[in-house]
Write a structure and sequence with these properties.
Helices cover 44% and strands 19% of the residues. The chain has 238 residues and is of the alpha/beta class. A six-stranded mixed beta sheet has the order 3-6-11-14-17-18. A five-stranded parallel beta sheet has the order 2-5-10-13-16, with helices on one face. The chain binds coenzyme A. Coenzyme A (COA) binds next to strand 17 and helix 5.
């Protein structure tokens, strides 16, 4: 009986998230759709293939307009409704766990439809900040696989490499654990690496490509961590 109730809550919550997605995506599409309508009407009197070309250019411009609008809309929802995550442990289907699902679903709207186009641009920094991340100056983010952004701190001039996964949550034994991840000044999170919750990476440290840092790892400043699970490079040679 408990399982049926849990499945029902999950289904209702999923439909609620779809509803929010429809609303936000629809709003973000609206300005670009308006541009397409304008161009189609402005083309009256031109040959049909010219009107079609104008419409095609309008549609592609509309996609980028959609993406930029989406970033700010999702960010505005996070700010207005104060959807910041707090460190702690939450039972499944508790209000804390549902809030976590809601916040990450908002991020997925961006990462699944547009984020590839804002990697390594100022827009991804703006988006992360709007979602509550603390992001320093000249930070380069080349991955869309960062979650729980309000628990993420990235200091000045740090680099997050392509496809790196940085998450501040872990489901374990029926509980959701949320813990901050801090990335120090000028640290490099290598491409395809995995950074788990509670990790602190000291300044100038390098996490090797493909390394997996276990939960709560404390990476000393200027060190190099390699492998799975990641250990300091000097220990590999001992
Ligand atoms: C770990 C890293 C910093 C080592 O570079 P380096 O200091 O020039 O050292 P080397 O390439 O000479 O390798 C030193 C040792 O680390 C090992 N190593 C290098 N890269 C490794 C990796 N990704 N995983 C596991 N071991 C690695 C080497 O096999 C070597 O081992 P050995 O001493 O037993 O022979 C580099 O390989 C790396 O992964 N950098 C991350 C780059 C990145 O992803 N940047 C962000 C995106 S651009």
């Amino acid at each position: 009986m408990k399982g049926v109730a849990a499945a029902a809550i999950q289904l209702v919550f999923t439909l609620f998230l779809y509803g929010i997605g429809i609303f936000i995506i629809g709003l973000a599409i609206y300005p670009g759709a308006g541009l397409c309508m304008f161009l189609w009407r402005a083309g009256v009197g031109y040959a049909l293939h010219v009107r079609l070309l104008m419409l095609c250019l309008g549609v592609s411009a509309a996609y980028f307009i959609y993406g930029i609008c989406l970033i700010f809309l999702v960010g505005a929802v996070r700010v207005v409704f104060r959807l910041s995550l707090k460190e702690g442990e939450y039972p499944m289907q508790s209000p804390g766990a549902l809030k976590w699902a809601l916040v990450n679903s908002l991020v997925l709207l961006v990462s699944n439809t547009f984020m590839d186009f804002i990697l390594l641009t100022p827009f991804i920094t703006i988006f992360y900040r709007l979602m509550g991340a603390k992001v320093g100056r000249n930070v380069q983010i080349n991955s869309k696989y960062c979650a729980d952004l309000s628990l993420l701190e990235i200091a000045d001039e740090a680099v997050i490499g392509g496809h790196a996964t940085v998450i501040c949550h872990s489901f374990e034994r029926g509980r959701l654990i949320l813990k901050k991840v801090k990335i120090g000044r000028r640290a490099v999170v290598g491409l395809n690496s995995v950074i788990l919750p509670g990790t602190e990476i000291g300044e100038h440290a390098i996490i090797a490509a493909g390394a997996v840092l276990g939960k709560n790892t404390n990476v000393e400043p200027r060190s190099v961590y390699c492998g799975v699970p990641a250990i300091p490079a000097k220990d590999r040679r001992d």
